[in-house]
UniProtKB/TrEMBL annotation:
Gene Ontology biological process terms in this record: translation
One Gene Ontology cellular component annotation held by this UniProt entry: ribosome
InterPro entries in the record: Ribosomal_bL33, Ribosomal_bL33_sf, Ribosomal_zn-bd
Family as reported in the entry's similarity comment: Belongs to the bacterial ribosomal protein bL33 family.
Protein name (database record): 50S ribosomal protein L33
An MF annotation (GO) of this entry: structural constituent of ribosome
Length: 32
């Protein structure tokens, strides 16, 4: 279960710039 919810929750990050939760599909910002 953690393998399924892990990546999904990790993909959703809170961006202070847009003041909302955004889903990083390509995960470019989260890459490093």
């Amino acid at each position: 279960q953690r393998l399924r919810t892990g990546p999904r929750l990790s993909a959703v990050k809170y961006d202070p710039k847009v003041k909302q939760r955004v889903l990083f599909v390509e995960s470019k910002k989260t890459k490093k």
